[in-house]
């Protein structure tokens, strides 16, 4: 009954909705209180995928500039980096290049990166089109999705797509009690291997 | 380049051109604060949402040339002005000297302990007094600038219903600027333990600004 564990870290400027995405995914709720995140926190969630069960450890970071120097130690054992911007704030979109650079510098291609345009519920204030988001994701060879943590739009899909891109069970057995080390050959999504009789539903 | 001399930890505050209203207050700081006081009170997430990078760079350059510049003459959003001010404090010598960090953290740890009612134990007031005692050790220029900036943050927090930045949010977004704790070689695990108290210190300074900086009584219940 081995469950693979994966660490997922969220990055992005302050106020783009990193904590709200986690809250929507974990508790299917949205907290209307405007509350900045202090330091770093993590939560775990078990995901039941078609062919296996995984445990995702979600690391939420405060967006403060001064914490940027901590990214290397923070990303070192992460399998996934979710880089978030606010579609109503062009500056937060421009800054995603820097976050993605920081992650790539530390991990090269050994990490899955998902670019997320959040706050689609605020469509009348939109500054970044879906096409602009897609284009940047393609240029930087990362995955892309638009979400609304407030409306609950595409949040589950975001984490499902990331989970589907995680390395499958054919990987070498991880050492007990340690995070799975991820070696990806490319950054594209990996099709989950279908196992005969693997699904009990 | 005409900028004040730098030390290991950034330019000394006392070497900047000073305001004509306050000989201990760099004009750069006054110009930014006055603009934010006038324009920032309806801006959601003031001091949280960073300003546009190009505007930040433009304003930084202009203010270095002329710190008394009227920011209204440029097309600059108030978030960018807040970011410029944060950058200023990040680049100059620390407002609160690192040599006082331990004493401040200790005083803050006492404040978060529930009051022990038994005789001889310090109550809330004397704990705040202890914290005020540590603040008094900050050298005069830095103390004046800190007083001016915290008093501004207190005004900002009073408009929380329009911009959502209460004293707690302001403290979370600004403690890394005010208390420049060195994270070199620290891991995120260390950090989870190192972030709570500094935020409490800054939040307490904002909420009890009158007590710490203006000789007023403490506010016993913060609403």
Notable traits:
heterodimer, A: 201 residues, 5 helices, 6 strands, B: mainly alpha, two-stranded antiparallel ribbon, 11 helices, 2 strands, 55% helix
Written description of the protein model:
Chain A: One of its GO terms (molecular function) is GTPase activity. Chain A: Keywords: GTP-binding, Nucleotide-binding. The complex is a heterodimer of chains A (201) and B (223). Chain A is globular, with a radius of gyration of 16 Å. Chain A is an alpha/beta fold and 201 residues long. Chain A has a 6-stranded mixed sheet, with helices on both faces. Chain A has helices spanning 18-27, 71-75, 90-107, 130-139, 155-165; strands at 4-11, 40-48, 53-61, 80-86, 112-118, 143-146. Chain A is built from 5 helices and 6 strands; from the N terminus they run βαββαβαβαβα. With 223 residues, chain B is mostly helical. Chain B has helices at 27-39, 53-65, 78-91, 101-112, 124-135, 140-157, 160-163, 167-178, 188-194, 196-207, 209-213; strands at residues 6-7, 10-11. A two-stranded antiparallel ribbon of chain B has the order 1-2. In chain B, helix 2 (53-65) crosses helix 3 (78-91), helix 4 runs antiparallel to helix 5 (124-135) and helix 4 crosses helix 10 (196-207). The longest helix of chain B has 18 residues, at 140-157. Chain B is globular and about 60 Å long. The N and C termini of chain B lie far apart (48 Å). The interface between A and B is medium-sized, with 28 and 30 residues.
Topology summary:
The complex is a heterodimer of chains A (201) and B (223).
Chain A: E1 4-11, H1 18-27, E2 40-48, E3 53-61, H2 71-75, E4 80-86, H3 90-107, E5 112-118, H4 130-139, E6 143-146, H5 155-165
Parallel strand pairs in A: 1-3, 1-4, 4-5, 5-6
Antiparallel strand pairs in A: 2-3
Chain B: E1 6-7, E2 10-11, H1 27-39, H2 53-65, H3 78-91, H4 101-112, H5 124-135, H6 140-157, H7 160-163, H8 167-178, H9 188-194, H10 196-207, H11 209-213
Antiparallel strand pairs in B: 1-2
Helix pairs in contact in B: 1-3, 2-3, 4-5, 4-10, 8-10
């Amino acid at each position: 009954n081995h469950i693979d564990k994966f660490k997922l870290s969220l990055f992005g400027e302050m106020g783009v909705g990193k904590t709200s995405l986690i809250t929507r995914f974990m508790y299917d709720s949205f907290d209307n209180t405007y509350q900045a995140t202090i330091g770093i926190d993590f939560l775990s969630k078990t995901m039941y995928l078609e062919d296996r069960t995984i445990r995702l450890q979600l690391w939420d970071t405060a967006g403060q500039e001064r914490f940027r120097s901590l990214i290397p130690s923070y990303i070192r054992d992460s399998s996934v980096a979710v880089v978030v911007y606010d579609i109503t704030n062009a500056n937060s979109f421009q800054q995603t290049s820097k976050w993605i650079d920081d992650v790539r510098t530390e991990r090269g291609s050994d990490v899955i990166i998902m670019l997320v345009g959040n706050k689609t519920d605020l469509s009348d204030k939109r500054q970044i089109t879906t096409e602009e988001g897609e284009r940047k994701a393609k240029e930087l060879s990362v995955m892309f999705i638009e979400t609304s943590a407030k409306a609950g739009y595409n949040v589950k899909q975001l984490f499902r797509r990331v989970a589907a891109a995680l390395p499958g069970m054919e990987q070498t057995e991880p050492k007990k009690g340690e995070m799975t080390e991820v070696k990806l050959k490319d950054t594209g999504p990996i099709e989950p291997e279908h196992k005969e009789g693997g699904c009990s539903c | 380049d005409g900028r004040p001399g730098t030390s290991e930890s950034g330019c000394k505050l006392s070497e900047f051109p000073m305001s004509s209203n306050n000989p201990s207050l760099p004009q750069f700081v006054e110009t930014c604060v006055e603009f934010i006081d006038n324009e920032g009170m309806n801006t959601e997430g003031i001091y949280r949402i960073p300003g546009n990078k190009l505007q930040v760079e433009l304003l930084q350059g202009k203010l270095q040339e002329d710190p008394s510049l009227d920011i209204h003459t440029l097309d600059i959003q108030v978030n960018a002005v807040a970011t410029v001010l944060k950058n200023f404090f990040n680049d100059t010598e620390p407002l609160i000297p690192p040599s006082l960090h331990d004493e401040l953290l200790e005083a803050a740890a006492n404040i978060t302990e529930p009051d022990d009612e038994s005789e001889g134990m310090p109550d809330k007031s004397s704990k705040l007094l202890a914290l005020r005692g540590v603040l008094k050790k900050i050298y005069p220029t830095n103390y004046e600038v800190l007083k001016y900036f915290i008093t501004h943050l207190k005004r900002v927090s009073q408009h929380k219903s329009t911009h959502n930045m209460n004293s707690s949010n302001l403290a979370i977004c600004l403690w890394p600027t005010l208390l420049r704790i060195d994270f070199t070689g620290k891991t995120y695990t260390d950090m989870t333990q190192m972030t709570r108290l500094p935020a409490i210190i800054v939040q307490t300074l904002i909420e009890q600004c009158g007590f710490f900086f203006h000789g007023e009584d403490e506010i016993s219940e913060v609403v």
